[in-house]
Amino acid sequence: MSAAAIHLSAEAMACLPRHVAIIMDGNGRWAKQRHLPRVEGHRMGAESVRAIIRAAGELGIKYLTLYAFSVENWNRPKDEVDTLMKYLAHYLKNELPELNRNNVQLEAIGQLHRLPEFVQKQFKKTQEALAKNNGLTLIMALSYGGRTEIVEAVRSVATKVKKGELDAAEITEQVFGDHLYTRKWPDPDVLIRTSGEMRVSNFLLWQISYAELVVTSTLWPDFRKPQFFVALEDYAKRHRRFGGL
Predict the structure, then answer these.
(1) Alpha-carbon gap, residue 88 to 94, rounded angstroms
(2) What is the pLDDT of residues 167-209, one digit of tens each?
(3) Would you please indicate which residues are annotated as catalytic (active-site) residues?
């Protein structure tokens, strides 16, 4: 799709997803292909984040969840993790005016207590500054793992049963969902994955049960508004049955 033809069809506009989740993959490969340091891939990936947030807000999409840093990412070389944390804090500070102009609220899911204190402080500061906005809700998955989230929810439910606050017979999908990080928001309608990998990588394992999957070979730093619109056009062609006919 050329830059001059960046628009959604009437069909796609008529069935926009309420909640889009994205696995942003390919920063390292993008840099390697260009013989650049990995940090350059992350820097360009941040440009893609800005473009997709802006596009989602303009369309009226209500929720956007971005897989920014997984629990597995802590196993990367310390130098890279330290750089990513500094970059995250820098992003949260410098993007504040842009996010505010686009009427974005900021939320997060994951083991946020594992983030360095300076990142936690900046996140809270940025979140509070955007608290009165009522447009797109940006949900950043930070130090996040789907299995970890489910285990923590099980512990929480089990504790309530042990204390007599909840009868085991009363545990339903809704009750369990109310103990997940994402309890305040609807499940994603569509999960987009960049870089062509055909896996969900421990992301929102409970919540994507009925999400439509859109996989593109485009690496995340090259995923901008035209590629986002192509994914939404793909989603619009799906017939969601939720297990029915």
Answers:
(1) 10
(2) 999 999 999 999 999 999 999 999 999 999 999 999 999 999 9
(3) 25, 73
pLDDT per position as a tens digit, 48-61: 999 999 999 999 99
The single residue listed with the structure tokens 């085991």 is: 168
Are the C-beta atoms of residues 88 and 141 closer than 8 Å to each other?
no
Query: Quick check: pTM over 0.90?
Result: yes
- List the Cα angle 192/195/201 in 5-degree steps: 65
Burial annotation 72-98 (CB, 10 A radius, 16+ → b, else e): ebeebeeeeeebbbebbbebbeebbee
Count of helices and strands (H, E) across the chain: 9, 6
Element (H, E) at 140: strand 137-144
Nearest to 228 by CA among 21, 11, 4, 14: 21
